[in-house]
Amino acid sequence: MPAAVMRVTKVLSNRPVGMFHGWYQSLTQGKPAVAATNMTLAPVSAQDAADLAIALGDGRHTGIWHLSSSDELPYDVAAMRMADICGLPRHLVRGEPGDQQQVPDIFRHRYTALADAKGGEAAGRYD
What we know:
Blueprint: E1 4-8, E2 11-12, H1 19-28, E3 33-36, E4 40-41, E5 44-45, H2 46-58, E6 63-67, E7 73-74, H3 75-86, E8 93-96, H4 117-122
Parallel strand pairs: 1-6, 2-5, 3-8
Antiparallel strand pairs: 4-7
């Protein structure tokens, strides 16, 4: 049976979840939000992920498709951007290197972005 596989990097929406929820909660309470300086993410929007899934289905595409930001952001920078977007106190974001105990090396990715020109074309991003 033909199928499409969609590989997506970190999906973000306007509702904070996961570590973003923790940062959001801390900042709304006036507490510091601690985020790693030595780990990165390549964020994409939930809308872009949905658009690509629809485009792949509508176009009856098969194969492996990537969706990724071309930018790799350190987690502390992502936390600061979230603070800016939400109107929260950016100065309370504290960047610290994550250690082996918090996140073992096996779960740390050297590169977080994926080449996604093919996925971008299917979703109509490169018209």
